[in-house]
Specification:
Chain lengths: 575, 348
């Protein structure tokens, strides 16, 4: 999870001697792959937005109606609120965990991952359960305290806060990895030159961080605009419709209206592309850090340590503690009508959901498919990142366009809500004229996961790539390393922290993914999130919560093992 | 090391004590083993895909019994009605399902009108509740659920007898209704009321209910959960079978069939016209309407479609539920407009 540029780049001296890596046809092959995997389903969906489908006419003309404009306005408002709240949560945390002594406490890193591992609708349900009338909130905080928390949660700000709890992890990881990579010398030079803390922040840190922050804010905004769990569970309840809840309604609530969903999706797509354009413009100012970065910055916080702990505590309270008290109690409650006393709590549900034929198959399938998909997505993302970043010397116009196309397609899946992408998948891959198709096989689920998680992995690899100084590659070229030597011995090791982080995120996202898992899974293939959702729908609340806990615990184990392995690797290297 | 080991041992001991002190939860095994057995026609082969928007256990029971009797493997895709219709609609150019079994009448009626369902009248069609078979025989309701008033006896001030009782001051802020935009059955109930009573009388009732602090949110499951947990005391228009299942578990709930009438939603099944294995699909539908298939529904607290299969003990049978005076054809015709008006009046 952590990016330690220093440990990544220690054995550079041993680069071989031959020619430089050149990717000619590779660029176009990659582009073609992405066009089929990403662009084609979106086009299949857009065609329906224009032509209509199944007897319903195109709905593009309705977009400018006042009630629809209000929905667009709500979406932007929600996105901005989530960006603001996520920043407030992530930025101080990233600073504390990168530059201060608090970074020794690695459990915090694990803890902030927990909300990210939780299926999004479960977190919203947990909060609603905590704040409901006669719920835990009222029991612990009194009637008026409970009512106060409820009024906050059941508002657009509360909705944004719940979504931030899940999304801020992206921003936190990006910012912390970037801060980790800032060489101590940069800050110290400024300090020696007599710059005040404020000046150091304004003149050194802010310019170094702003492209990364822009990238993170983009992910947060787009995820907030495209995530349906909280809007559907909480937003519909408080009458705060956003684009994605409307799209979800149009494709899941009778009467279905695909063209209307497709029309709203084009708005989201446009919104995503605009934000992407802004981010592109910002990231031109990305600053690579100089050659050997051996030492990380450390700031003495002095008496500011206490407020630091307070902030971490607050973030963990709202993102982990409260929802998980609700989830765990939910998983253990025998009778929903009785308060959680000893004789009304049981561990039975945990064992029950793990029986074969119950939830065990779902868990195993989700883990296997997510593992495969994360690996494929990572390989793809590394290829994309290398192609996108390489811009040296003269380049034909066609190749430059191909490169930009890859960049855009790599992030495009994040600019549309998954449900739209998935419906595009069905339109495309279930077309009767296809000679062969992965539709209705496990490969379809893997393909869907790969496309959905590609942007996240790509962001991580890109950030790692941005921190790689060209000097290394130039040095390799000068010493005459072959393309593969450069790739295996220099680029990949330097990118490793980003690759591992990206792979892990993709794996975890795959395990908890709900929309594609529900819609394109072949009949009879059980998957984790649809299983949990199905249990909720059928009134088996305890089973659903128990499986959530098991899923999150399992993911946490993967996280901890990987972190342990990574630490061991970096210890070995520094020896 | 030894300290952490001791701490670990203490933790194990403590959790063992916690486990020992905890209660336990009954597993929901099927209550009734159906006596009747169905015989499959000879010569069936291949497999089938069933899209089913039903309680998972009911689907599992049905499929297991059918496969045992016929040797035909059934792949099931389960989910809410909305998810299944979305998948069906996206797949019409190349349908994957052979048999579809949904919890809502209107979408199936639309598919039948569009010619997407195979015309087939199941065996023993004469024993099925009147009005539950489509006139064109494109689909048939195979079991049903009544919309009732579900009361949490611990939280409610009394036992209401009819919808209008919930407008009384003692129910202020204690009533929840599933959102008709999300719950097809709740939308059907409102539509049926406007047909049976006229719009003026229906809106008068809902004006009073909303003035009395009734809230509308979520689909059927969340609304029942909310009342079971005691946040509200009464579900207006709750599906009966999930309430019966909760009562079996030991929750203090009571199912009231309203005196002035309600709806029993037949849950329709149809064969997709382009089914690649129509013989097996027809056999599955026949099985679903056989005494054995019907008894499986009854065991899961559904109202059977066959008049000669009894409802499960402790549940109300078809005859015990007073129904509103309407037909499903009428409901299909005006449903969309009624829902739009309801949404505009109360949820805008």
């Amino acid at each position: 999870m952590t990016t330690d540029i220093d440990s990544g780049g220690t054995d550079l001296g041993s680069a071989g001697t031959k020619t430089r890596f050149r990717s000619g046809a590779g660029v176009y092959a990659l582009l073609a792959l992405l066009l089929v995997a990403v662009a084609a389903p979106l086009i299949a969906m857009l065609i329906r937005a224009v032509t209509g489908y199944n007897g319903d006419p195109s709905a593009l003309g309705q977009l400018l109606r006042p009630e629809n404009l209000r929905i667009v306005g709500n979406t932007v408002l929600l996105g901005v609120l989530v960006v603001v709240i996520s920043t407030a949560m992530a930025a101080p945390l990233a600073f504390l965990m990168s530059w201060t002594r608090l970074r020794r406490h690695r459990w915090i890193d694990i803890a902030v991952m927990v909300p990210f591992l939780t299926p999004p609708y479960v977190a919203a349900m947990a909060w609603l359960d905590f704040t409901r009338i006669n719920g835990l909130g009222e029991r612990w905080l009194g009637a008026s305290g409970g009512a106060l928390v409820r009024s906050v949660v059941e508002s657009p700000v509360g909705m944004a806060a719940i979504m931030s709890c899940e999304i801020f992890t992206f921003l936190y990881l990006l910012l912390r990895n970037r801060l980790d990579a800032v060489p101590a010398s940069l800050d110290e030079m400024a300090a020696v030159a007599g710059a005040s803390a404020g000046q150091r922040f304004r003149l050194v840190l802010a310019p170094l961080l702003s492209p990364t922050y822009a990238l993170g804010a983009l992910i947060v905004f787009i995820r907030a605009a495209g995530e349906f769990g909280t809007p559907v569970t909480l937003g519909n309840r408080i009458g705060f419709p956003v684009l994605v809840s409307e799209i979800y309604g149009n494709v899941t609530i009778d009467p279905l209206n695909f063209p209307r969903a497709a029309a709203f999706s084009t708005v989201l797509l446009t919104m995503g592309m605009t934000v992407w354009g802004l981010q592109q413009w910002m990231s031109r100012r990305e600053v690579p850090f100089g050659g050997r970065v051996a030492r990380r910055t450390r700031v003495d916080t002095g008496w500011w340590t206490a407020p630091g702990w307070l902030w971490i505590g607050l973030v963990l309270l709202i993102s982990v503690l409260v929802p998980y008290i609700s989830i765990i109690l939910g998983a253990m409650t025998v009778l929903r009508s009785k308060p959680p006393s000893m004789d009304n709590l049981t561990f039975d549900y945990f064992a029950r959901v793990l029986r074969p034929g119950r939830g065990l198959d779902a868990l195993q399938n989700s883990i296997t498919l997510a593992l495969i998909a994360a690996t494929v997505a990572t390989v793809l993302a590394v290829a994309c990142a290398m192609v996108i970043a390489r811009r040296r010397g003269a380049e034909t116009r066609a190749r430059a366009t191909a490169r930009r196309g890859i960049d855009l397609l790599g992030i495009a899946p994040d600019t549309v809500p998954t449900i739209v992408l998935v419906i595009g998948f069905i339109f495309l891959w279930n077309a009767p004229w296809l000679p062969f198709t992965p539709y209705n096989t496990r490969a379809m689920v893997v393909l869907a996961y790969v496309v959905i998680t590609l942007p996240v992995v790509l962001q991580n690899v890109k950030v790692a790539y941005a921190a790689v100084d060209d000097k290394f590659l130039e040095a390799a070229a000068t010493s005459g390393a072959t393309a593969w030597q450069t790739l295996w011995r220099i680029t990949i090791p330097l990118l490793m922290p980003g690759i591992v982080a990206g792979w892990l995120l993709a794996f975890l996202l795959g395990v908890r993914e709900v929309v594609a898992s529900s819609m394109v899974r072949p009949a009879s293939l059980q998957l984790l999130s649809p299983w949990i959702l199905g249990q909720f729908d059928q009134g088996h609340r305890a089973e659903a919560m128990a499986m959530t806990v098991i899923g999150v615990l399992g993911s946490t184990v993967v996280l901890v093992v990987l972190e342990w392995w990574r630490n061991r690797m970096s210890e070995k290297r520094s020896r | 090391m030894s300290l952490s080991r001791r701490a670990f041992a203490a933790a194990v001991l403590a959790s063992a004590l916690v486990v020992a002190g905890c209660g336990s939860a009954d597993d929901s095994a099927p209550a009734v083993k159906p006596a009747a057995t169905w015989t499959a026609p000879a010569g069936l082969s291949g497999d089938l895909t069933l899209y089913s928007a039903n309680p998972q256990e009911l689907t599992d029971d049905l499929v297991a019994a059918f496969t045992k009797a016929s040797g035909v493997k059934v792949k099931t895709f389960g989910g809410e009605t909305g998810k299944i219709t979305a998948k069906l609609d996206a797949e019409w150019q190349n349908p994957q399902a052979d048999v579809v079994y949904l919890a809502s009448w209107t979408p199936v009626a639309k598919y039948a009108a569009d010619g997407k369902a195979l015309v087939y009248s199941p065996q023993d069609a004469d024993k099925i509740q009147p009005g539950w078979a489509d006139k064109g025989n494109a689909f048939t309701g195979r079991d049903g659920s009544a919309l009732t008033i579900v009361v949490n006896t611990k939280a409610a001030p009394g036992t209401p007898k009819d919808w209008s009782d919930l407008t009384a001051p003692e129910y202020k802020g204690k009533v929840i209704m599933p959102d008709p935009r999300e719950s097809g059955t709740a939308a059907d109930l409102v539509t049926a009321m406007t047909i049976a009573w006229g719009k003026d009388k229906t809106w008068e009732l809902f004006d009073k209910l909303f003035a009395n602090g009734m809230v509308v949110h979520g689909a059927n499951g969340p609304a029942l959960d909310d009342v079971t947990a005691g946040s509200h005391a009464v579900v207006l228009g709750g599906v009966d079978y999930s309430a019966y299942a909760a009562i079996d578990k030991g929750e203090p709930l009571q199912v009231v069939s309203p005196a002035s009438g309600t709806t029993i939603t037949p849950r329709p099944v149809f064969i997709v016209k382009d089914s690649k294995n129509p013989a097996a699909a027809k056999a599955l539908v026949d099985f679903m309407f056989s005494p054995q298939g019907q008894a499986i529904s009854a065991a899961r607290k559904m109202i059977p479609a066959r008049t000669d299969v009894p409802a499960a003990a402790g549940t109300r049978s078809y005859a015990d539920v007073k129904q509103l005076n309407f037909t499903w054809d009428q409901a299909k015709a005006s449903g969309k407009d009624v829902l739009a008006e309801f949404t505009k009046r109360y949820l805008g």
